[in-house]
Automatic annotation (TrEMBL):
Annotated protein name in UniProt: Tryptophan--tRNA ligase
GO molecular function, one term: tryptophan-tRNA ligase activity
Broad enzyme group: ligase
Binding annotation for ATP: T10, T11, S12, G18, N19, G155, R156, D157, L195, K202, M203, S204, K205, S206
Gene: trpS
Subcellular location(s) of the protein: Cytoplasm
Length: 444
């Protein structure tokens, strides 16, 4: 299988150098590699969390779409779409919401930052916090897991969201007893992990310290660069290149040799005004040709709309059938073909005709699991576990394909033991069926 790479940008503002260097440029590079299937999208549902200005959302969607294409994205090669054109995304988001611990969301940086600010202001800790902001990482998990992305190129600010996505995916896989979701890995461009803005803090729409990528043309770019905050060392005085964010921005756009030369010039006393001039020239070299394409695209929004519609159709070829499989897995099935205990012999297993483990809580609230056969029939029902991790270890032991090491026979009945305790009992005559299903699972 090809490596799936996926990333998105929230459509709540004008794309800036940080978005470009942290996400767009590395993603476009990744999409040209052999063996890569790339999924890039406009995160417009995410935008609603931060912005309630419809004009701004609409404008930003256009600008960000035009930016991706102007920066070299080949919309034929990659799957390029708008999040809100895929109804499966909010549906998956809800399923994931139902398996995500509230405690996990309590730890999210963006939420914690809002709470800290409220505490400083001595107002209610949740003042101004919407449920959108609170559960934002779950929507992001839905974006990533919908396409089972292996790699997610993002800036450093998104690392925690990726960790949460992995947690949520694991929880779903465990609860519904299948490898539904791949655990994604974050991909960080180390040189630009966090591009600083005009004031040295992370370049961000929220801090109003951005350098716009294309909007406003070369004039706006230059005006922003001239506002980059520097120290007061005069021309001729040696500068601390490593400590200057102007140098950090330059380095993100230059080859190692160019960056080394710029650094030496600063250390030898290059004036900040001249340094800004050199930075403008370096940026223009990379961005000017793209800016022309950007202007052409912005003048033809209907062309952008066509590209996005085609992208949505391509994306839904994957998201619609996958969502159908997930609906089956959680039990949102047609009334005519119930699976699991008492299933009709014709019914297919939730995993599309594959044997699978299903975890659940019994009436006492204890943890148990079943192994279902290819027809959805019950092959094994576990004992109860107070600790879900012990249940998980028992499933792992069974999946590992060493049934004989777990098995003891007492007449017509068989017992399976893990970690010194019996985890399930069954009639010995059903062992061949169990063996077959476990062998099938081990081979998957
Ligand atoms: P957003 O829109 O804030 O930023 C888009 C991408 O740009 C990166 N970025 C930066 N990189 C380096 N330096 C900076 N100063 C800088 N500012 C922004 C971000 O790290 C990000 O990669 N939640 C996401 C959007 C999203 C998403 C997803 C991303 C929604 N679903 C699924 C990946 C996968 C966000 O708000 O990014």
């Amino acid at each position: 299988m090809n490596t799936r790479v996926l990333t998105g940008i929230t459509t709540s503002g004008t794309p800036h150098l940080g978005n470009y260097a942290g996400a767009i440029r590395p993603s476009i590079r990744a999409s040209t590699q052999a063996g890569v299937d790339a999924f890039y999208f406009l995160a417009d549902y995410h935008a609603l969390i931060k912005c309630d200005d419809p004009q701004r959302i609409a404008r930003s969607r256009l600008e960000i779409a035009a930016t991706w294409i102007a920066a070299g994205l080949d919309a034929e090669r990659v799957t390029f779409y708008r999040q809100s054109d895929l109804p499966e995304i909010p549906e998956l988001c809800w399923m994931l919401t139902c398996v995500t611990a509230k405690g996990l969301m309590n730890r999210a940086h963006a939420y914690k930052a809002s709470v800290d600010q409220n505490l400083l202001k001595q107002v209610d800790p949740d003042d101004g916090v919407t449920m959108g902001l609170f559960s934002y990482p779950i929507l992001m998990a839905a974006d990533i897991l919908m396409f089972n992305a292996h790699k997610v190129p993002v800036g450093r600010d998104q690392i925690q969201h990726l960790e949460m996505t992995r947690d949520i995916a694991q929880r779903f896989n465990h609860l519904y007893g299948g490898d539904y979701f791949v655990l994604p890995e974050v991909q960080i461009e180390e040189d630009v992990a966090t591009l600083p803005g005009l004031d040295g803090r992370k370049m961000s729409k929220s801090y109003d310290n951005t350098i716009p990528l294309f909007e406003g043309g070369a004039g706006a770019l230059r005006a922003a660069v001239m506002r980059i905050v520097t120290d007061s060392r005069a021309p001729g005085e040696p500068k601390d290149a490593e400590g200057s964010h102007l140098y950090t921005i330059y380095r993100a756009f230059a080859s190692p040799a160019e960056a080394a030369q710029f650094r030496t010039q600063l250390e030898q006393g290059l004036g900040w005004g001249d340094a800004k001039q050199l930075l403008c020239e370096r940026l223009e070299q990379e961005l000017a040709p793209m800016r022309e394409r950007y202007a052409e695209l912005m003048a033809r929004p209907e062309r952008i709309e066509d590209i996005l519609q085609a992208g949505a159709a391509k994306a839904r070829k994957l998201s619609a059938p996958f969502m159908a499989r997930l609906r089956e897995a959680v039990g949102l099935r047609a009334a005519a073909k119930p699976a699991g205990k008492g299933a009709s012999a014709k019914g297919k297993g939730a995993a599309g005709g594959k044997a699978r483990f299903v975890s659940f809580r019994d009436e006492q609230g204890l943890f148990r699991f079943r192994l279902l056969g290819t027809e959805g029939q019950e092959l094994l029902l576990s004992e109860s576990f107070a600790d879900p991790k012990a249940a998980g270890r028992a499933v792992q032991a069974l999946r590992s394909g060493v049934l004989d090491e777990l098995l003891s026979l007492e007449g017509q009945s068989a017992a399976l033991s893990v970690d010194g305790r019996v985890v399930a009992r069954l009639a010995a005559e059903h062992l061949p069926q169990l063996r077959g299903a476990l062998a099938e699972l081990a081979a998957q």
